[in-house]
Each structure stands twice: as structure tokens, then as C-alpha cells.
Amino acid sequence: MATYKQLQREPAFRELFSKRITTLQDIYNIFKDSTFIAIDTEHFPITSGKDRILHQVGLAHIQSLTRYLSQTNDTSRSTGRPCFEDFYNENKIRALALNINISQEKRERIIRLKGEGGVPTRRRHRFGREQQVDLENLEETVIEFIQSCEGKGSLVLMGFEMAAEWTYLSRNFSRAVPFFSAWVDLRDIGKDISSSVGKDIQPGRGDLGGGIADNAGDDAVATCVLASALLDSENHEKLRFRQECSRIAGRKGYRVPDVRDRFTVSICAQGALPSTINSGMNLARQFFDYSPQSAGIMSEEIAYLTFRSQDQMDQFVAGIHGLVLPTGDILSVQGYSRANRSMESEDDERKEKRELRQRKRLEGTASEVEDLGNLFSSQFLSA
């Protein structure tokens, strides 16, 4: 993919790149006199991350980001959250999902390399129109959509983590660039608000299982929702809270506390951890008021929290040990001893040594396997 630095040097993109909006104040300065087109692209790899096929382009036009959703229907009242469909209708958003046709020759090559599931099945669109288009006609179709959008003032391009979007914009529909007076990556705005960037604010739902992947048109609409939400000051504190919880939670998966964490407690119930504390993120949210330094899951039945001082740890133990959750689970909290950590550290060292010995035994056969791999890859690529 093309990098931002490479695109900045291109005469065709230099002017628009210089109009990048990166702060919340920048948005406030222009949003009343601008209309917005959100873009999202979906692709999939063939042989590697660099060998990708553009699969879908989503566009959504919103005339103004000032019209906030009025929570009037039953769904909104019951959940207390904005409903995408209401937002879409109230703001008169126009959305288009463009499915890129893949030639039979390419499909056969993908099947040879990746099997029948090589081309992902995408969710049916919920908003706007969906249209099939050949790659050579993509640019014309995108421009037609842009020209059909009504609105006063400047037209601003927006997205979330836009490296892929800029790559395809520059490669496949570059004649659309002059229509925009500025552009904004909402990731920058989230970073400006929270002073960190997390996954909680990104639009889209990824692969939902069963081979069902994102729909770019719907994700473009979700980008409009996100942009509007980021302008609402009530959401700024929520975003900062989520980012801090994400920092406390750290990486996912089972792990043990760091040996350097002196003030650590283990938490368990009568069996598997209840859903309210069965992940680092849930732990951070549940016990945020106790100011934990980090949180993690050691097993299905044991969680841990670390603190910055003995006083903080003691306050947590006094307040939570024996607590009965709404589920009926009774929490047991106790200090996590250094002896346990030392034993686990020694076990980890022994495990690493065993794995090292196994890798050395396999080194003799690894080169033979690599040679065979080169033969197979060249055969597929020439087919």
C-alpha cells in the first residue's frame, strides 16, 4: 500500500493532503459550513498482506453533522443508545455499497490458493443502495455519486484509519480527489479527545463468523454516526473512560501478573468467573473506582488486579472480598503472593528452555521444508 508520505509528494494529492483535519477544534471550525462524504473500503489478501484485491467500496453522504439523533422510538428508549436506522433517516443520509466484480480467472486462482472460502461473503447492506461494478468503471461510478450529493459549502472526505482508503483512492478513483476541500481521519479526532487511540471507537464489526464480513456501505454510515458522536461533548468523557479501561486491561488472553507488580490481588468466585469480570476490560470497568494499575485473567476461574500502593490494595480487598454480585456469585479476594509468582516464573523459564531445545531439533528439517514450499508457490503463481 502507498504510504502517506508517498502520497504527499504526488502533485495530484498534495493540495488535499495539506488540508488534513486532525483536531476536534478543526472540526468545530468547519462543520457548520461543510457537508461530508464518508468512505470505507474492504479488501482481502490472496497470497500475502501486500497481495490484496479490492472487494467493496462504501460511500455515505451526510449534509450536516449538527443534527443529533432524537431518541424517540422504542428501540432507542429501551437501550438508551442511538439507533443507526433512526440516525440514517433523520439525517437523510445517502449511502452506496459498490461490489467490485471479480473475473472468473481471478476467482479460480483464489480458489486454488485459498480454497472455496477464499472470497469472503459480505453482509447484505442495511442502508442505501448496493451495486455491482467492474473495477475499470469504479472511478466513474464514484464520481457520479459525489456529483449527485446535494449540500451547501465545502465537501469534506472522512473515514477511520484511512491508509487503505487513500491507497485505493489514489490507485482506482483519483479523479474524485479534486471534489474535496479537506479530509479527516476520525482516528485523529479520537486521539485528540482522549490523548490515546483505542479500538472501542472504531466503526464496523469485522467478521461476524460464518464467513460474514463487513459491508463497506454500512460501515460508511457508521462512520457518519461516529463523526456526529465525537462532536457531542457528553461522549468525550465516555471515550476517555473507555481508553483508560483499555490501558488498564492491556492485551487479551490468559496471563500472570508481572513479577515487578508488588501490590497484586487474585479474584475468584465459586467456579468460572462471572461475565462481569471475565476479561481484563470488564475487570477494569467493574473496579475502575478503585484505581487499579492493570487487570488480567489467569484462567477461567481466576482474575487479578494490580495497584500502585499497599493502601490501594488493602482498600480493594476490604471493599470487595465477600461481595455478592447480582448473579449470586460471591467474590473471594486475596493477596497474590510472591511465592506463587516465583514458582510461575521458574515454570515459564523451564518451558522456554524446552521450547528452545525443540526448535533446535527441528532446525535440521526446516530447510528441506522451505525448499518444497518454494516449489509449490511458484507452481501456483504461474497457473
Characterize this entry briefly:
Residues 341-355 have a biased composition (Basic and acidic residues). With 383 residues, the chain is α/β, with parallel strands linked by helices. It is built from 14 helices and 13 strands.
CATH architectural arrangement of the largest domain: 2-Layer Sandwich
Strand order of the largest sheet: 1-8-7-2-3-4-6
Name of the CATH superfamily of the largest domain: Ribonuclease H-like superfamily/Ribonuclease H
How far apart are the first and last residues' alpha carbons, in Å? 25 Å
- By helix and strand content, what is the structural category? alpha/beta
Percentage of residues assigned to helices: 40-55%
- Which consecutive residue ranges, at least 5 long each, have pLDDT under 50? 69-81, 205-211, 341-347, 359-383
Largest sheet: 7 strands, mixed
Please write the CATH class name of the largest domain.
Answer: Alpha Beta
* Number of E-state strands: 13
Envelope shape: globular
Instruction: Specify the number of helices.
Output: 14
The number of distinct structural domains comes to 2
Return Rg in Å.
Answer: 26 Å
SSE run:
HHEHEEHHEHEEHEHEHEHHEHEEHEH
Q: How much beta, percentage-wise?
A: 15-25%
Overall pLDDT score: 79
User: Within the CATH hierarchy, at the fold level, what is the topology of the largest domain?
Assistant: Nucleotidyltransferase, domain 5
Biased composition (Basic and acidic residues): 341-355
Region (Disordered): 339-362
